[in-house]
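Exam revision sheet. Question 4 asks you to relate a sequence to its structure. Input first:
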Amino acid sequence: MAKIGVLGAGTWGIALAKMLSENGHEVTVWSAVQKELDALTETHRHPNLSGVTIPAEIVYTPSVEEACVGKDVVMFSVASPYVRATAAKAAAFLTPAQVIVDVAKGIEADTLMTMSQIIEDELKKAQPQAAFRIVALSGPTHAEEVARDLPTAIVSSSKDDAAAKYVQEVFMNTCMRVYTNTDMLGVELCGALKNIMALAAGVSSGLGFGDNAKAALITRGMAEITRLGLAMGCSEQTFLGLAGIGDLIVTATSMHSRNNRCGYRIGQGIPVDQAVHEVGMVVEGIHAIPAAMRLAQQYNVEMPIVEMADAVVGGRVTPKEAVRQLMTRNKKPETR
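Answer key, structure tokens:
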């Protein structure tokens, strides 16, 4: 049995906390929102995980220290805009002996750091000489399905192979199959950029386009992500795997996806701010766009879907005009 601290009580954090508790581990969940903790303690249910009962054994706390100290694994499951602040709060209570797991997906616009890099950056500020064991856990994983024990596969990626294998052992069960991968940057890049493509896929559906358009968008979107990843030194195999095409497929095709739902409303003509408000949770694809644009420029990689997503979100073109521009680009071979 492992002792596990979960930082963040959103749908993904709670779905994994439930799974880990049912795996026989001792789980403590932290949230900065006391009302959220009170509701989970009293009802053993999450408002966005309909019909799911959360194990009574899970402990809830408003103390970051309690969620971190003495734990074998500490998992960051807050939304990407809050990862740095949460890591700064937790830094004093974490040690190099622990395995730090990040399940947030994104790239920080100012620094172009991935989520694991942000966590490491904050931990190094508190403990400059320490070497922390950080794992990125990513793949095609809707919280709504994991919470219902539906079959799912995910990737445990780290520069520390032993840490990745430990997470594989702790998280794996008959419903969750965990693979390891040493290409941590590639895994995290896929996790961040697929959200932009899912947003675009939602726009396509909102415009009334069909399966042909969505299939083309997913395929060409993956081509863009792969081009950037290869330019950054990532492994091509990562983009063909669960964290790459697998995660993109599930996020771009399911209405469980907040990025897809938000894009759908934008495609229907709803203003971006209103569409985000309707989703009611952080739309990671919108937060990822500025970093993706900077990376494309820095590595001189052509990413036309990302560019059009940026133009639509920024209000510089309408969704219909964005499609027209994408469809009338200069002729080119598919492999370029």
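Marking note for examiners. The longest strand covers residues 133-138.
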